[in-house]
Design goal:
alpha/beta; Alkaline Phosphatase, subunit A; 2 domains; 16 strands; globular
C-alpha cells in the first residue's frame, strides 16, 4: 500500500473514532431516581461528616451505620444539606416530587389520594423526550389500593409490572409469572419477614428488578428508572444478617427525648411518646445498610454495562423519621428529623464532584431540576424551582444576603395545620394552634428554643413571613387563607 493511501486510511480511521466519541458524548443521559421511605438523613455517613459529632451521632456516640455507597454517590456529585420534604408525609411529598407542583395542586394533599393525571409527570415528560420509563417499588399515588401491583393510576410510566401502590412489605416473590407479596396469603398479605432472604427480601428483590432494566443491552433508548424502596419505614424489621448487625452499638436516647420542655402545639403526627429502644434503632440501621449494599449493586451493574458515567443518579426520600427525637417516631411535622431529607445528585460531565449545596431546596424542585440537568424544556406550570445551574457547579453561585432563597413546607391534609418557610439557617413555622415558632439552626440545631419575638430576629422573621405570604398567594395554597395562619403571618409583618 502506498504511503498516501496509508495516510488516507489512518485519517479516515481517526475521523471515525472522533465521530464515535462525539456520538457517545452526545448520547442522551439516563436517569436513575432512588427513593427511600422515612429515611433520617443522619444515618448517611456523607451527612454525618459535615456535622459536629453530637449532631451526627444523635443516638449515642459511636452509634452509626456505615453507608459507603451513598457516600460514593455524594463524593462524585453534589450533596444538599438543606433539602426538605415539601409535605413530610408519603403521598403528598411524592406527588410534589414527580410533578414539580405543590401537593394541594396535584390532587394529593394527603395520603391515599389519587394523582391528578391532567398534570404531566416527570415520566410523561421524559417519555415525550424519547425515554423508556419504569417504576419499581412503592408508588403511593394511586389511591387506597394495597398492594395493587401495576396500579391503574401509574403516572404515565411505561413499565410498571413491579410498581405497587402502597404498603411496607418485607418479602416479594414471582408467582405464575407475576409479582406477589411472599408473606401471608394472597387475600391477606402481611408485613412478616417469613424467612425472606437475599433473593426475596423487598430491598434485594426490587434491586434485582431494577438492575435487569437499567442494564438491558437490547434497549436502544435512554432509561428513566425509579426504584422506590419501602424501607427504612416501619415496621423496623430486616433480614439476616442485618437484623442483629448493630445490636452491640452504644445506643442512647436523643438529647431532645423527654426534655421536660413544653412541646410546640403543632407537634402532631407520628407515634407519640414512644419508649426508647436501642434494638429498634438497631433494626432501623440494618434496613439502611441493606439499602446501601443494594445501591452498591446498582452502581456495579451500571458500571459493568458501561452506563454509569452517562447516568444522572438522584437519591432522596419522601420524608424523614424522628427516631425518638422530640418524643416522636415517624414524621408529619416540620422538625428536622421529620421534614429534612437526603438529597444527592451525581451526573459526570454536568455536575462537578465533591460539592456541598447549603441553600434550601424542596422535593417539589426535583422534576424541574432534572429537566434542567438534561437540557430539556421547562414546563410553564412548574411551581418548583429549576436548580440545575446551581447544583451543577456550586462554586459559581452567589448567595443573596438581602433576599436569600427560601423553600416552603406544608402539613399534609386538606385542613390547614401549619406552614413553614426555610432558608439556609432559619425556619419559621406558623400554625392554627400556637404562636409562631422560629428556629435558628446555627444557635440551636436541636430545635428546642423558639426565637420568635426576640428583637434581634425581627428582620429575619419579617422576611420569612413575607415569603410565606407570597408563596401562598402565588401558588394558591388554601392553607394561607386559614384565619389563624394568616393572622400569625400578619402579626409578624406588623411588628
Amino acid at each position: 500500500m502506498s504511503r498516501p493511501l496509508v495516510s488516507l486510511v489512518l485519517l479516515l480511521a481517526a475521523v471515525a473514532s472522533s465521530l464515535s466519541c462525539l456520538a457517545a458524548t452526545a448520547a442522551p443521559t439516563n436517569v436513575l431516581l432512588i427513593i427511600t421511605d422515612e429515611h433520617n438523613f443522619r444515618t448517611l455517613g456523607c451527612y454525618r461528616e459535615l456535622m459536629p459529632r453530637e449532631q451526627a451521632e444523635m443516638w449515642g456516640l459511636g452509634a452509626v451505620v456505615p453507608t459507603p455507597n451513598f457516600d460514593r454517590v455524594a463524593k462524585d456529585g453534589v450533596l444538599c444539606t438543606r433539602a426538605y420534604a415539601t409535605a413530610p408525609v408519603c403521598s403528598p411529598c411524592r406527588a410534589a416530587m414527580i410533578t414539580g407542583r405543590y401537593p394541594h395542586a396535584t390532587g394529593v394533599p394527603a395520603n391515599d389520594k389519587v394523582l391528578d393525571r391532567s398534570i404531566p409527570t416527570l415520566a410523561d415528560r421524559l417519555s415525550d423526550a424519547g425515554y423508556r420509563t419504569s417504576f419499581i417499588g412503592k408508588w403511593h399515588l394511586g389511591g387506597a389500593g394495597k398492594p395493587e401491583w401495576s396500579p391503574k393510576i401509574d403516572g404515565g410510566f411505561q413499565h410498571k409490572d413491579f410498581m405497587f401502590n402502597r404498603g411496607h412489605w418485607k418479602k416479594f416473590v414471582i408467582e405464575d409469572g407475576v409479582p406477589a407479596v411472599g408473606a401471608g396469603t394472597k387475600k391477606n398479605p402481611t408485613y412478616a419477614l417469613d424467612g425472606a432472604d437475599e433473593k426475596t427480601f423487598s430491598t434485594d428483590w426490587l434491586t434485582d428488578r431494577a438492575i435487569e432494566f437499567v442494564t438491558d443491552q437490547q434497549a436502544t433508548k435512554p432509561f428513566f428508572t425509579v426504584i422506590s424502596y419501602p424501607d427504612p419505614h416501619g415496621p423496623n424489621t430486616v433480614r439476616a444478617p442485618y437484623d442483629t448487625r448493630f445490636d452491640d452499638l452504644p445506643f442512647q436516647a436523643p438529647r431532645t427525648y423527654r426534655t421536660g420542655k413544653p412541646a410546640p402545639k403543632w407537634l402532631g403526627g407520628g407515634t407519640k411518646h414512644p419508649v426508647f429502644r436501642g434494638d429498634d434503632m438497631s433494626r432501623y440501621f440494618g434496613m439502611v445498610q441493606c439499602i446501601d449494599d443494594n445501591i452498591g449493586r446498582l452502581l456495579d451493574g451500571l458500571e459493568e454495562s458501561g452506563r454509569l458515567e452517562n447516568t444522572l443518579i438522584i437519591m432522596t426520600s419522601d420524608h424523614g423519621d424522628l427516631c425518638y427525637e422530640h418524643d416522636r417516631q415517624n414524621k408529619g411535622n416540620p422538625y428536622e428529623g421529620s421534614a429534612r431529607v437526603p438529597m444527592i445528585l451525581r451526573q459526570p460531565g454536568r455536575i462537578a464532584a465533591d460539592q456541598i449545596y447549603t441553600e434550601p431546596m424542596g422535593t417539589v424542585d426535583l422534576t424541574p431540576t432534572v429537566m434542567g440537568l438534561l437540557g430539556l424544556p421547562a414546563n410553564a406550570e412548574d411551581q418548583g424551582r429549576n436548580l440545575s445551574a446551581l447544583l451543577a457547579d456550586v462554586s459559581k453561585s452567589e448567595t443573596d444576603e438581602v433576599d436569600p432563597p427560601v423553600t416552603f413546607l406544608r402539613n399534609a391534609g386538606v385542613a390547614a395545620a401549619w406552614l413553614a418557610a426555610v432558608d439556609a439557617r432559619y425556619k419559621l413555622i406558623v400554625s392554627v394552634n400556637d404562636v409562631p415558632w422560629l428556629f435558628d439552626a446555627r444557635e440551636d440545631p436541636d430545635e428546642l428554643v423558639n426565637f420568635h419575638g426576640k428583637p434581634e430576629y425581627k428582620t429575619v422573621e419579617k422576611r420569612l413571613a413575607a415569603k410565606l405570604l407570597e408563596y401562598g398567594r402565588v401558588n394558591k395554597d388554601p392553607h394561607i387563607e386559614n384565619a389563624k395562619i394568616s393572622a400569625s403571618v400578619e402579626s409578624i409583618l406588623g411588628r
